[in-house]
Amino acid sequence: MNTKPIKIAVVGDVHDQWENDDALALKSLEVDLVLLVGDFGNEAVELVRTIAELDIPKAAVFGNHDAWYTATEWGRKKCPYNRQTEDWVQEQLDIMGEDHVGYGKRDFPQLQLTVVGGRPFSWGGPEWKYSDFYEERFGVNNFATSAQRMIKAVQSARFERILFLGHNGPTGLGEAAEAPCGKDWNPLGGDYGDPDFAEAIAQARTFGKTIPLVAFGHMHHTLRHTKTRLRQRLVTSSEGTVYLNAACVSRIRETPQGQQRNFSLVTLDSEQVSEVSLVWVGEDFQVVETELLYSSTALLAQSAFML
């Protein structure tokens, strides 16, 4: 087992906000692995091509916006290209290549871990959506067969240490509108996580896999029903798994000091996550703001104090 701490950058929903400076910022942060949760743009082929050129070990899943003109009837009506002669969804998949782990996995021998992907192009929620899209593209027609695709990826993983990467998070992280996958539009509340994703994670545990991190996005940190608080970004399970919602949108903000871009930084120390922070990087590629979301040492100190 690699005992050196691993530094991971999780890139939240991009929504067309990706520049060459993002690659330079990641280099400056000296991360070992980049996880991208999707929603790069509305089938933004050229932007995906730019991200695919990132020369840091990486894994990605696609989000619902990445099939915006293909998966739904209303989206197809707005499609800006000829779907008879072009397929921008397939182009994105081809461009991302083996770095795309949706319904699959990628082994990282140098890090001694495997990244397993959740359902690609997920819209989230308790109802099965995009039936024709998933049947045609992936041979999947319900949550059960979707979960089986992920479980098969788990079974083929080279390493016992698995990181799960999804666009939307799994069910089970809370019913409140402010929960990591909580429904923040009317009627308010309810778990809008992916049940197939939750099933795959549960099955992975029965196989004896170690799961330090489940990273996802989709449900933005800014809430629709209130501006007095942000969405809960992180949950830890009784098994020690950290569930991280990285969707801090907009990714790039304009300030008097210039542009700043955010990343979620995760430190993986052997079998567990030791720290998670949301950082903003300035134009000189230095971290200008850090929000500590989780620290295992702080929890240990708190436990010792309580004793």
UniProtKB/TrEMBL annotation:
InterPro entries: Calcineurin-like_PHP, DevT-like, Metallo-depent_PP-like. GO terms for molecular function: hydrolase activity. Residues 6-221 form the Calcineurin-like phosphoesterase domain. SUPFAM superfamilies: Metallo-dependent phosphatases. This is Calcineurin-like phosphoesterase domain-containing protein. It comes from Planktothrix tepida PCC 9214.
